[in-house]
Design a protein that fits this description.
The chain has 543 residues and is α/β, with parallel strands linked by helices. It is built from 17 helices and 20 strands. The strands form five sheets. Strands 1, 2, 3, 4, 5, 6, 17 and 18 form an eight-stranded mixed sheet that branches. A five-stranded parallel sheet has the order 7-16-8-9-12, with helices on one face. Strands 13-14-15 form a three-stranded antiparallel sheet, with no helix packed on it. The longest helix is centred in the last third of the chain and has 21 residues. Bound molecules: flavin-adenine dinucleotide (FAD). The site of flavin-adenine dinucleotide has 36 residues, from helix 1, helix 2 and helix 14.
């Protein structure tokens, strides 16, 4: 058998995580290959090219902090950047640090098997390449596998079908077209106003209304940019130790909503609504832990919806009532509710009568048929675990990750899983990940993993994996932390509830980005507490 190519590390994915990994591992002398199924870098921002796609964390914060010159030189044109600008930034980073030469594009990693004799991973790709690596690092993203619902007749539709998470590279022209859009989560809320501005008619099919607050996106001002750039060191340090990995424009009040008077609450909510962004959710310290406190903010937002939407039946339908504010991903929008005042937009409630079938000319629901030129699926993702579990990952004793995670993901710190030595997950389930500014969390994980590899090399350690007890305790801690909040009350993708048959449990860690980082640092400083380190047999033999 031909000798397989061997590298120190294989990284899967070339989004923000994979690129920073490649940069840092290379810098520290680890031979690294990256595989990416797309034909360019970008990850989320390569795939999600739908109209209106943009970040909902401010760009001055949703950007890399690892290179001072990069963060000083790059100019963001808006407060919340659009997808093309974020993609251009990622491409710039790739060119600036000459990353593409170690990335194999158009190639999916299909399998990884851990060889317990050699302590190496054997990795297979869909282009027939097989290679060996000591470390396998999954930078595959939390939100990178689009969820296409299984609706009867989908292949019969004669018009165009799109999914927001897998959008064509060329512009889709909806001018004067009859368009149907299914789904009103974050991607739906971002794309609906933009599609409605072009389409002849837009019909929105809504199963569950989402909570959304105004983004108040504005062009970047010199003053704001300078404020950040002159204080980046301090601001980034504060972001790293903050609960969400980002700083709020209006500071949170460390007070219960129930301790405030009606007038004080009105002022607090009004101020944050006017400022825009996620800050509303942090008005008081118990909005995500007390139903009663949450309802004060929820009813206030319902009042805003009623004020914005002319047709009160539509306003009612758009007002969430079945789960607390913020327990599904809070969306940021630009003119979302106002869009329903346009004559060319209809809202169809499919909560009680789901879509029966897609027909050659449109779709049928609740005894009505609709005719469309195009149907857009804004139906989200098989989040957190979906992408990982589509790869056949076999650890010790041939156990697959899918078998081990059959009742839900089991990790230590969201970084590793027992039985899978030297396999790391960047922003894996059990880490702050999607409940944070992901750039802050990505940088923390990439640096943690790289420092770990350096430690192993310096101490002649060949394998690292979690101890069973440490992992069990962490899984319990993640659930206990979530159970102290209102999050488990929503049928959210955080809970796996959007995918039929997926285990229901809260997947991200919501103990706070800063607190989580301190735990990771403390464990590492204590010689990787909670991890089992396997000595390098060659080093042992030489002693
Ligand atoms: C529309 C949208 C908006 C978002 N907005 C924000 C925001 O405002 N703030 C925020 O913090 N986060 C946001 N996110 C989350 C976003 O995913 C992260 O911020 C970040 O981009 C993740 O980077 P990543 O490199 O970890 O993963 P990704 O960007 O998802 O990249 C993973 C890459 O791995 C590749 N891949 C997966 N499996 C394989 C395989 N088997 N073989 C080869 N390649 C593979 C994929 O093709 C993909 O390119 C948003 C997500 C979406 C979908």
């Amino acid at each position: 058998m031909a000798k397989l190519n061997t590298v120190d590390a294989v990284v899967v994915g070339a989004g923000f995580s994979g690129l920073y990994l490649l940069y840092l591992l290379r810098k520290h002398g680890f031979t690294t290959r990256v595989f990416e199924r797309g034909d360019d870098v970008g990850g989320t921002w390569y795939w999600n090219r739908y109209p209106g796609a943009r970040c909902d964390v401010e760009s001055m914060q949703y950007s890399y902090s690892f290179d001072e010159e990069l963060q000083q030189e790059w100019h963001w044109s808006e407060k919340y950047s659009s997808q093309p600008e974020i993609l251009a930034y990622i491409q710039h980073v790739s060119e600036r640090f000459d990353l593409s030469k170690d990335i194999t594009f158009d190639t999916s990693v299909t399998a990884g098997r851990f060889d317990e004799t050699a302590n190496r991973w054997t990795i297979e790709t869909d282009n027939g390449e097989t290679l060996r690596a000591q470390f396998l690092i999954m930078a595959t993203g939390c939100i990178s596998t689009a969820n296409m619902p299984n609706i009867v007749g989908i292949d019969d539709f004669k018009g165009n079908i799109y999914h927001t998470g897998n959008w064509p590279h060329e512009k889709v022209d909806f001018t004067d077209k009859r368009v149907g859009i299914i789904g009103t989560g974050s991607s739906g809320i971002q794309s609906i106003p933009v599609i409605a501005s072009e389409a002849g008619h837009l019909t929105v099919f809504q199963r569950t209304p989402h909570w959304t607050v105004p983004a108040r996106n504005v062009p970047m001002t010199d003053e704001y940019e300078t404020l950040w750039k002159e204080n980046y060191a301090e601001k980034r340090a504060n972001m790293r130790l903050s609960p969400s990995g980002s700083l709020r424009s209006v500071p949170p009040l460390d007070l219960s909503a129930l301790e405030a008077s009606d007038e004080e609450r009105e002022e607090a909510y009004r101020e944050r609504w006017a400022a825009g962004g996620m800050t509303l959710l942090k008005s008081y310290n118990d909005l995500l832990t007390s139903d009663e406190a949450n309802e004060t903010a929820a009813s206030w937002v319902r009042g805003r919806i009623a004020a914005k939407v002319n047709n009160q039946k539509t306003a009612e339908l758009l007002s969430p009532k079945t789960y607390p504010l913020g327990t599904k991903r809070l969306c940021l929008d630009t003119n979302y509710y106002e869009t329903y005042n346009q004559d060319n937009v209809d809202l169809i409630d499919i909560s009680s009568a789901p879509i029966d079938r897609i027909t050659p000319t449109g779709l049928e629901t609740g005894g009505h048929s609709f005719t469309f030129d195009s149907i857009v699926f804004a139906t989200g993702f098989d989040a957190m675990t979906g992408t990982l579990l589509r790869i056949n990952i076999e650890g010790r004793g041939g156990m697959t990750l899918k078998e081990k995670w059959h009742a839900g993901p089991r990790t230590y710190l969201g970084l590793m899983s027992e039985g899978f030595p030297n396999l790391f997950t960047i922003t894996g389930p059990g880490s702050p990940s999607v409940k944070s500014n992901m750039l802050t969390s990505i940088e923390q994980h990439v640096e943690f993993v790289t420092n770990t590899l350096i430690y192993l090399r310096e101490h002649a350690v060949s394998t690292i994996e979690p101890e069973r007890k440490a992992e069990d305790d962490w899984v319990d801690h993640v659930q206990e932390t979530a159970n102290q909040t209102l999050f488990p009350k929503a049928n959210s993708w955080y809970m796996g509830a959007n995918i039929p048959g997926k285990p229901r449990l809260f997947m991200p860690y919501i103990g706070g980005v800063g607190a989580y980082r301190q735990k990771c640092d403390a464990f590492a400083a204590a010689g990787y507490e909670g991890f089992r380190l396997g000595l390098d047999s060659k080093a042992v033999a030489a002693e």
